[in-house]
Amino acid sequence: MRLLLGIQQLMASHTLISSSSLRITNSMPIKCVPSSFTPTKAFSFLSLSLSTTTTTIPTKSFQVRSVAAPTESVAGFDDMVSGTQRKYYMLGGKGGVGKTSCAASLAVKFANNGHPTLVVSTDPAHSLSDSFAQDLTGGQLVPVEGPDYPLFALEINPEKAREEFRNATKKNGGTGVKDFMDGMGLGMIVEQLGELKLGELLDTPPPGLDEAIAISKVMQFLESQEYSMFTRIVFDTAPTGHTLRLLSLPDFLDASIGKILKLRQKIASATSAIKSVFGQEETQQAAADKLEKLRERMIKVRELFRDTDATEFVIVTIPTVMAVSESSRLSASLKKENVPVKRLIVNQILPPSASDCKFCAMKRKDQMRALDMIQNDPELASLTMIQAPLVDVEIRGVPALKFLGDIIWK
């Protein structure tokens, strides 16, 4: 009980922020989670593990202190949440800028506004489990506890995806690419290029394949009637370099598979009579059909990325010169790939009150310089800028994500 009173006194002595208005107040305590939340959930928000045997539980609403900067920026969430047709939101940017927290908070916000939502991490270094304070590993859909409407999360297992890629080129314990190309009637090419170690090259997945397989798996989920309930899909993507490879990979695979199929057709037309005698034609056609299905799936992924009515890429950055410069290049690359991008989240902004501290004042001055860069950058100036404040509580668990979501997604 003394510990509980101590926590309440400590919290009462700090400045509080309203999660709905973003205005800092020094006197009026602001509730950041609904009163229906029990203190057990509230204390888990502060990452405090309390063990008690008492049966009396206090009912006082949980309060959060924060040094969040006041801002009037509007994300246009009403437009994002409107409509029942399925929409996809991909959040990406430089590593360490808070992409996962922003993506998870958006998913919680969608779910709390009536949308059955799926949030997927395509980053091989997953943080989604940590963000939700829940085990989401295993490569399966996991229900998230807390939101008003169904919210499911999925962390793609990168090693499992790589293993599936290797298995796709192997049969009967064979040599991988050699057997696969034999089935296509192209085995002689592999033999001639043996010194180049083509098999080792193709047995090793190319960069970005983890994310491509992740997107492809999500397409499988979406094509199944079992998962047709989702009306909002949020992707937490890998850092910029991986994401750019992901965006270009469908085009690369489409072109590569197309060339293989054309080459196979030319060879097949010259050797079809012989192969039909030895019963190899059906095997080769089955391999070609698999490639064609893969190609069709990659085309669907490419169309998904570029569908202006269903998809939007949200860039997440922080107010530093380096991060803004990288975000500008990312925006240019997205436009080059015809990927719709409308919003830019600038995360971790210090409040004006930080000027009372010399170190903080210098830091805020640098941040203001970075914000000016955004306003004058030809790639970023046209985007809707959302200023997300720096908060001094760890954003972990659904109550914390709701708090952050109410700040960012207005």
Write a structural description.
This protein has a domain at 77-159 and 209-408: P-loop containing nucleotide triphosphate hydrolases (Rossmann fold). Helices cover 48% and strands 12% of the residues. It is built from 15 helices and 10 strands. The chain has helices at 2-12, 39-45, 77-81, 99-112, 128-132, 158-168, 177-183, 187-192, 198-203, 209-223, 240-278, 281-306, 321-336, 358-376, 398-408, and strands spanning 16-17, 24-25, 87-93, 117-121, 142-143, 151-155, 232-236, 311-317, 341-349, 384-389. The protein is globular and about 80 Å long.
Summary keywords:
single chain; about 400 residues; alpha/beta; Rossmann fold; eight-stranded mixed sheet; two-stranded antiparallel ribbon; 15 helices; disordered N terminus
Summary, kept brief:
With 410 residues, the protein is α/β, with parallel strands linked by helices.
What share of the residues lie within helices? 40-55%
Query: What is the element string, with H for helices and E for strands?
Result: HEEHHEHEHEEHHHHHEHHEHEHEH
Q: Residue ranges: pLDDT <50 for 5 or more in a row?
A: 1-63, 184-190, 192-199
Q: How many individual helices?
A: 15
CATH level-1 class of the domain at 77-159 and 209-408: Alpha Beta
Average predicted local confidence, pLDDT: 72
Q: Helix/strand/pairing class, anyone?
A: alpha/beta
* Number of β-strand runs: 10
